[in-house]
């Protein structure tokens, strides 16, 4: 596990943009769009694979996927920071919401969320 | 700042899926697709706004955006965990690559990355 | 097959926007973003299905998918019209490019495009 | 305007895939994912532009955008054909639905759809 935290990453990205005077491009709208672009590059790696194939990527392919995951993460952290959102807290709040929405006892095995859809 | 870490979140998501027996749906391909779906829901909030408008969301809108950011983050962490990728490390490696690709001295002010594109 | 043409659709969409004074929102940037949002809603229907399952949708699900396909198409036609691009011509030009890039004799059976990726 | 029709395009795409034995990759799920990938490449061209800038692309940029529009269109037509959906008819049905949902008299000038969101 990394010895760096999400907070360190946020700081590094602020410094990176400030050193280049790029904040002016980083409106939430533009960052959201950039995030979508990076997700497109990420899913490209999986588009023609079966589910099983996607579980056993070659090391070379995995390296490429890792780089795309990093790009997605970077824009997600930038966007959240620009909006003043704490990603970790927001995620835990969402998990609490989902826990009530899909109680383990009720959905276990039935995968209701997926099959009812 | 949250007192939880990315590692705590990863653990919470593993438990959440295990309690519901949902791992079978979570192939990397499916998770990547779910991530793309959530990003679509996120950018929907910004689609008709100008860049300036996107900088000053109403509190109500910001709450909605925060929930979408959480969804994106959750699937990104799930997908990375499934593939064995450490997101923080991957992001710092990418920043190092970008620092060489776009040296601050050369691109500062000119925003070369953006205007040349 | 429909007795309407793509040109009829383009005209109908121009009228629809003009009657509502919505052209001001329809910058290429915004239309491209709206297109991405609709594609997110489309792929949501397929995210947890296997490839085989996606080939045999229920009639009810197919109706929902059809409506999403329509939304994607509408924004694609709007965006192309705004930019002065003839979609049919552009697609045939792209097929010609792809025919040279992936000669049938060479890639047949090997699915080179897919497996090499 | 092109002298080819959407129906001609559908036929050309069927022939293209058959000649290469690529139908096996073309499940609706995979085609939907490929469509999302192409939309990502399309919106990349607009991500850092203002709305006004996106209205006046250089000829070189417009050529690139046109090629991405073609890719999006090709996968949209493939996916619709695979599912047996007539895109033109579906789009006109959707316009009829939207006409009732957003009556011109009520929304004109106020852009209710956009501002209420």
Task: Tell me, briefly, the overall form of chain A.
Answer: globular
Q: What is the residue-mean pLDDT of chain A, rounded to a whole number?
A: 92
Could you tell me the number of beta strands of chain A?
0
Structural class per helix/strand content of chain A? mainly alpha
Number of self-contained structural domains of chain A: 2
Instruction: Name the CATH superfamily classification of the largest domain in chain A.
Output: MazG-like
Largest sheet properties of chain A: none
Helix content of chain A: over 70%
Q: Note poorly predicted spans of chain A.
A: none
Name of the CATH class of the largest domain in chain A: Mainly Alpha
Q: What kind of assembly state do the chains in view correspond to? A: homotetramer
Structure description:
The structure is a homotetramer of 117-residue chains. With 117 residues, chain A is mostly helical. Chain A has two domains: 1-85, MazG-like (Helix Hairpins, Orthogonal Bundle); 86-117, no CATH class. Chain A has seven helices and no strands. Chain A has helices at 6-20, 28-44, 51-55, 59-83, 87-101, 104-107, 112-115. The longest helix of chain A is centred in the middle third of the chain and has 25 residues, at 59-83. Chain A is globular. The mean pLDDT of chain A is 92. At the A-B interface, helix 1, helix 2, helix 3, helix 4 and helix 5 of A face helix 1, helix 2, helix 3, helix 4 and helix 5 of B.
């Amino acid at each position: 596990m990394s010895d760096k935290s999400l907070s360190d990453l946020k700081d590094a990205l602020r410094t990176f943009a400030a050193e280049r005077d790029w904040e002016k491009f980083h409106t939430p709208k533009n960052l959201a769009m950039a995030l979508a672009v990076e997700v497109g590059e990420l899913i490209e790696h999986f588009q023609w694979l079966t589910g099983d194939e996607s579980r056993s990527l070659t090391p070379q392919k995995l390296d490429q996927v890792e780089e795309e995951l990093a790009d997605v993460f970077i824009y997600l952290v930038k966007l959240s920071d620009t909006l003043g959102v704490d990603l970790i807290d927001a995620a835990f709040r969402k998990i609490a919401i989902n826990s009530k929405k899909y109680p383990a006892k009720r959905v276990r095995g039935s995968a209701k969320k997926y099959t009812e859809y």
